[in-house]
Q: What sequence folds into this?
């Protein structure tokens, strides 16, 4: 097993003192760094809840705590009737992220808990948030279509990791995670969206933001999220050779952005996540996912609040892509 002592932790981004960072790193240094766990009896997994459960889901009533700044999607914090604090994400990523967490969890990867709520009533909603089109203008602050993620005290983020630099490079588990990004068409593969969590003295590597999924990959202006038509029409496998497979994750920006080489190269490098996947590793993941029933895959999208037609459509595309892996 690879120890956390080998990790490069990006703790500076969290504004902690050097002594705090050293203390947190030493807390997990004797433990293994984990990316994947054996999901076990996949055929019986409940994908309506995924890594969560009916007992852990958010409970009314909800009260506003504060707005969370930063990022492209509006978020705020609430506390529920049991005193659990939640991060609420508004917008088109609420559905896609909820579905994606369940599919990755079924494949054995660590993910955040995510619950989709079609209509959330929040007391004491401030005017700033009430100006959002997804929030009603009444005093009770009814918010439409949200994803809720719990803030569990036993989990602490201690850093971020990148696709090009992590302890799992070359392993079938990391290659499987790269395949999952192409399978769900997640195009937002920046380092900030990958978290290292310390849980019980153990470091878990997680893709912590999966919202830019189930649409079309591409450059700025052409990519989409949570769009069945775009997802169904997009290509999955680009090229299959004797030993390697190239998967389609388009991220190349508009060519005029080449005048800014740093950002141009940063965006184009994300396409490499889907390139040169060992064929055997693709088959391994395909066989793993192939144990899921169509109903289980549908449950991923039912849990995310999609319509019946969308549930069927998304599930069929996912099942087709799994079949593509198994035909390699």
A:
């Amino acid at each position: 097993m690879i120890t956390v002592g080998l990790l490069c932790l990006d703790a500076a981004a969290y504004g902690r003192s050097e002594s705090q960072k050293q203390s947190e790193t030493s807390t997990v240094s004797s433990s293994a760094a984990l990316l994947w766990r054996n999901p076990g009896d996949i055929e019986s997994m409940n994908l309506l809840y995924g890594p969560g459960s009916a007992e852990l889901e958010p409970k009314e009533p909800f009260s506003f705590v504060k707005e969370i700044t930063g990022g492209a999607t509006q978020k705020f914090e609430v506390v529920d009737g049991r005193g659990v604090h939640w991060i609420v994400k508004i917008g088109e990523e609420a559905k896609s992220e909820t579905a994606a967490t369940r599919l990755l969890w079924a494949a054995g990867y660590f993910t955040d808990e995510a619950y989709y709520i079609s209509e959330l009533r929040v007391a004491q909603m401030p005017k700033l948030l009430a100006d959002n089109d997804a929030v009603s203008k009444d005093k009770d602050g009814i918010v439409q279509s949200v994803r809720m993620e719990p803030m569990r005290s036993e989990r602490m983020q201690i850093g971020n990791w990148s696709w090009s630099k992590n302890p799992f490079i070359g392993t079938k588990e990391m290659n499987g995670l790269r395949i999952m990004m192409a399978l769900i068409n997640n195009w937002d593969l920046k380092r900030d969206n990958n978290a290292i969590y310390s849980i019980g003295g153990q470091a878990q590597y997680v893709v912590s933001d999966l919202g830019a999924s189930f649409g079309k990959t591409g450059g700025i202006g052409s990519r989409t999220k949570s769009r069945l038509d775009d997802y169904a029409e997009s290509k999955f496998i680009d090229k299959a050779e004797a030993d390697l497979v190239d998967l389609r994750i388009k991220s190349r920006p508009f060519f005029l952005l080449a005048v800014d080489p740093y950002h141009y190269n940063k965006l184009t490098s994300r396409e490499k996540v889907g390139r040169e996947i060992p064929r055997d590793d693709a088959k391994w993941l395909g066989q793993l996912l192939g144990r899921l029933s169509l109903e289980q895959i549908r449950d991923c999208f039912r849990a995310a609040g999609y319509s019946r037609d969308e549930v069927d459509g998304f599930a069929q595309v996912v099942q087709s892509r799994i079949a593509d892996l198994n035909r390699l």
